[in-house]
Amino acid sequence: MTELTKEQLIEEAKLKIAIAKCHPNSGVARVEGELFKIALTSLEAEPVAWTDDEELRDIEKYGFGEIFQRPSDKYEASRCVTPLYRMPPVPVVPEGLVKAVHFYEQVKRENPPVETGAWKDAVDWVLKEVCQVVNIRIKGE
Q1: pLDDT of 86-140, one tens digit each?
Q2: Rounded to whole angstroms, what are the CA distances from 105 to 82, 94, 119?
Q3: Of 5, 67, 96, 129, which is most buried, counting CB atoms within 10 Å of its CB?
Q4: Domain range for residue 126?
Q5: What is the 3-state secondary structure (H, E, C) of 85-136?
Q6: In 19-109, which ranges are E strands?
Q7: Chain centre to alpha carbon of residue 100
């Protein structure tokens, strides 16, 4: 089996994301699209700093070590340079809020529609606003 290059994997991830966007009502496609977005972010990540074996030993021994703004000279054979990457951002939307939105959508799907009223309109408006923040597509829209 031949190995794929990083560039081939990036192109494949972009293709899978585009395919998932074509099937917004498919739960599987949505999950796969999100997984490929994560993979693509990881594949396209650039190091933000570098360190070496000696500094890693210092961190283990003393609790601190140095990092470098750029990789050391490629001709300097005595050091094994390790690139350091930025951590992915932590989701800013609380998990409980996402669960609440999913629960509300489930209740709406399973129960017949009720008359339009100010309360229902307000709840629907809040749901739509929250979904935009959470980046969830509301069923039927």
Answers
A1: 876 665 666 666 777 777 777 667 766 665 566 566 667 767 776 766 665 554 4
A2: 46, 17, 16
A3: 67
A4: 95-134
A5: CCCCCCCCCCHHHHHHHHHHHHHHHHCCCCCCCHHHHHHHHHHHHHHHHHCC
A6: 49-52, 81-84
A7: 20
Instruction: List, in sequence order, every residue forming a beta bridge with 81; answer none if it has no partner.
Output: 52
Is residue 136 within 8 Å of residue 99, measured between CB atoms? no
Q: Mark whether 38 and 12 lie in a shared domain.
A: yes
Nearest to 51 by CA among 99, 85, 7: 85
Instruction: Compute the distance between CA of residue 49 and CA of residue 53 in angstroms, rounded to an integer.
Output: 14
Q: Examine residue 123 and state whether it is found in any structural domain, yes or no.
A: yes
Statement: the pTM of the whole predicted model exceeds 0.90: no
Q: Please state, in angstroms and rounded to a whole number, the distance separating the CA atoms of residues 61 and 53.
A: 12
In a domain, 90, yes or no: no
In tens, the pLDDT along 17-44 reads: 898 888 888 888 888 888 888 888 888 8
